[in-house]
Design brief:
The strands form 2 sheets. Strands 1-2 form a two-stranded antiparallel ribbon. Strands 3-4 form a two-stranded antiparallel sheet. Helix 23 runs parallel beside helix 25 (about 425-435). It has about 675 residues and is an all-alpha fold. Among the domains are: about 370-465, no CATH class; about 470-575, no CATH class; about 605-680, no CATH class. The relative contact order is 0.03.
């Protein structure tokens, strides 16, 4: 077994952890059986198929994985499922995917006999793998005619729906109504994926099968097959299915319907307004878990949840009773939903909770991500002004919220100054973020900076007093590694610059001309370049390192491009040589926007930057700030694309936690629409 394994130059190939010289040993252990084989198979998944990514070594391993699928003493079905997933674009990705899929397809002939294997799991897996290869459908039709195992028939239904959709319609339409549950739901999904209408009675038949049906993971595209069903159907069928799921006797089916509705809402912008009203009766469901699922759905459904504001306030009012729990409770979900809606109904329960237990770390939106609204702002001001609201915990919470709203909170400065003695640090930091430099906040900011090394607070003290000691100490801690992570936003060191000369030796230590090994270390290199430039007025010695960080790409390259932007007006000749490497970063999702801004400041016409910026907007992680930059540049050529992105029904999912997907996309739509209006007025 595994003849020719040592003829492959494995050490020249790559997998998830580097050179692939260990692959022959893993494959031999996988062929041995027992616990060693189980462990080896787990490692094979980890290095050749790491979180869905495939590699050059993966393609080279396919013939040997195929041999194990045919001849291993045990776990053969797992090898067959693995081969299928390696060729399935819903599971596998990466620059080597095409080569891997071609390798699996080249070995399809060896998998066809497995359709008749004695092990039904092998037969089911073979149908899946052959479908991903685009194999001829005839052997699968032959197998379906003879097959009696329901799970294998389900896999064959999926496979034939993919390989021979026109011929499969009649067979699938019959199965979706009359087949055993597992085959019934497979037929339903196969019809849906092919855009085929369901026959009469199919919706009730599928909902009736939900408690007894499981779909093999490889055939799924979401966490659960019911999510697949509710995301991929049209609006009319999704509505029919949800109505029946929400009234099903099974608690699990009702919960699955609520969850699947929100997954659909994360994929389609029109879904929450259309389908969310259907869940209202479930707020009175006899099952506590279903009721909690509905509150979770409101948290995940964006602004459409506003029609449930009264119900959310009722649930949020119970938050003080559950605030101590480690679990994420429906009460916390209700509080967060009200925060995102700009509804002040969260304020009383949160203030009551923090009065008993001041730790607010679990309420993430208190610190970032809560949008400003007039109603919430006015209520926060009222609470601050009320004598009953002046305990330290309450003041800290309300000041923190005002601080994250920045200049929008400026009218609340009198109220904040009045409560400064009750929570000095929190109020002082809030005033700073609002943009109000009050001399009486200096002792609190100084104490905070001395205790934590916070650079923002240290710079605030410098601006108030001219005392550069704290900024120097804070920067020194960053440059010497006492604090590992530099601030996310680039610090403005302009006025304090001449006082930073004592830091130049520490800064030069990082300016090696080569990019450091890790992103945090590269971030320190960019900070060192800023310190050197500000202290000496001459960034030239730092530019080789800035270039190296740019060339290395990733998140640190964004910071380096930001530095180039800042230097473009004062040191244009020196940083102008970086234009070619900045252009190379336009295709790097982590630094597209920062590179484009730097190029614009260096004189690149906006029209040349529109295409990469438009591409960045829906890209994972990378598009933050792209819309604002297009407006700043006056890029009128972008209007049509911005309008298209604003109007499309498909969500733009870029980053963040799962609960925030819809809210973030709705805010993006706002920015897109505002940008279109602004650019059309130019």
């Amino acid at each position: 077994m595994l003849d020719g394994l040592d003829d492959v130059a494995w050490s020249e190939l790559r997998h998830a952890y580097g050179a692939a010289g260990d692959v022959p040993g893993l494959l031999r252990r996988a062929a041995s059986g027992g616990d060693a084989a189980e462990e080896a198979l787990s490692e094979i998944f980890g290095c050749l198929f790491h979180q869905g990514t495939v590699y050059t070594a993966t393609a080279a391993a396919v013939p040997f994985l195929t041999e194990l699928a045919r001849s291993a003493p045990e776990r053969r079905s797992e090898f067959v499922w693995l081969l299928g997933m390696l060729a399935d674009p819903h599971h596998a990705h990466g620059s080597a995917f095409d080569a891997v899929k071609a390798a699996v397809s080249a070995n399809a002939g060896a998998l066809i006999p497995l359709l008749g294997d004695a092990d039904p799991q092998v037969r089911a897996a073979a149908a899946y793998a052959l479908a991903q290869c685009g194999a001829p459908p005839a052997p699968l039709w032959d197998r379906r005619a003879a097959e009696e195992d329901a799970e294998v028939r389900a896999s064959l239904a999926f496979a034939l729906g993919l390989l021979d959709p026109a011929r499969a319609v009649e067979d699938l339409s019959r199965a979706v109504v009359h087949a055993p549950p597992v085959e019934r739901v497979a037929a339903a999904l196969a019809l849906t994926r092919n855009g085929e209408a369901w026959p009469d009675g199919a919706a009730a038949a599928v909902v009736g099968a939900m408690d007894d049906a499981e779909v093999e993971y490889a055939w799924q595209r979401h966490a659960d097959w019911t999510d697949d069903l509710l995301v991929e159907t049209d609006d009319a069928l999704a509505t029919t299915l949800l109505r029946q799921m929400f009234t099903a006797p099974s608690t699990q089916v009702r919960r699955a319907g609520v969850w699947g509705m929100t997954v659909r809402g994360q994929a389609r912008r029109t879904t929450p307004a259309l389908l969310l009203p259907l869940v209202r009766p479930l707020l009175d469901d006899p099952d506590e878990g279903v009721r909690g699922e509905v509150i979770g759905a409101l948290r995940r459904s964006g602004r459409a949840s506003a029609r449930f504001a009264d119900e959310l306030r009722t649930v949020a009012a119970r938050y003080p009773r559950t605030a101590h729990q480690v679990a994420i409770t429906p009460e916390l979900k209700a509080v967060e939903t009200l925060m995102l809606l700009g509804d002040p109904g969260w304020i009383d329960p949160v203030c009551s909770a923090v009065a008993a237990a001041p730790d607010t770390r679990r309420i993430r939106l208190l610190h970032q991500g809560m949008p400003w609204s007039r109603r919430a702002f006015d209520e926060v001001r009222r609470r601050l002004a009320a004598p009953a609201g002046r305990d330290a915990a309450t003041v800290s919470v309300l000041a923190t919220v005002l601080g994250q709203w920045g200049s929008d909170s400026a009218p609340a400065v009198p109220e904040l100054l009045a409560v400064l003695p009750h929570a000095g640090e929190a109020v002082s930091r809030a005033l700073s973020r609002i943009g109000h430099a009050a001399p009486e906040t200096e002792p609190y900011l100084r104490a905070f900076a001395e205790r934590t090394g916070d650079l923002e607070a240290a710079l605030d003290v410098w601006r108030m007093t001219g005392d550069a000691r704290l900024p120097i100490e804070a920067l020194n801690r960053l440059l010497t590694g006492e604090r590992v992570q530099p601030p996310r936003d680039s610090p403005d060191l302009g006025d304090v610059g001449p006082h930073l000369l004592p830091l130049v030796p520490a800064a030069r230590h990082h300016l090696t001309g080569a990019a450091a090994a890790t992103y945090p270390q590269r971030d320190v290199q960019v900070l060192a370049a800023r310190v050197l430039s500000a202290a000496t007025g001459d960034p030239a010695p730092a530019l080789p390192t800035v270039r190296a960080v740019l060339e290395a790409g990733g998140t640190s390259a964004s910071g380096a491009a930001g530095l180039v932007t800042d230097l473009a007006t004062t040191f244009r000749t020196g940083v102008g040589d970086l234009e070619p490497v900045l252009r190379g970063r336009l295709d790097d999702r982590w630094s597209t926007v920062a590179a484009a801004r730097a190029l614009w400041r260096l004189g690149t016409p906006p029209a040349e930057l529109v295409a990469p910026l438009i591409a960045a907007i829906p890209a994972p992680y990378g598009g933050r700030g792209a819309v604002a930059l297009l407006v700043d540049m006056g890029a009128v050529d972008a209007v049509a694309d911005l309008d298209r992105l604003a109007r499309r029904d498909e969500r733009i999912v870029t980053s963040g936690i799962d609960d925030d997907i819809v809210w973030q996309d709705e805010r993006l739509q706002d920015r897109l629409r505002e940008a279109v209006v602004a650019l059309r007025e130019l």
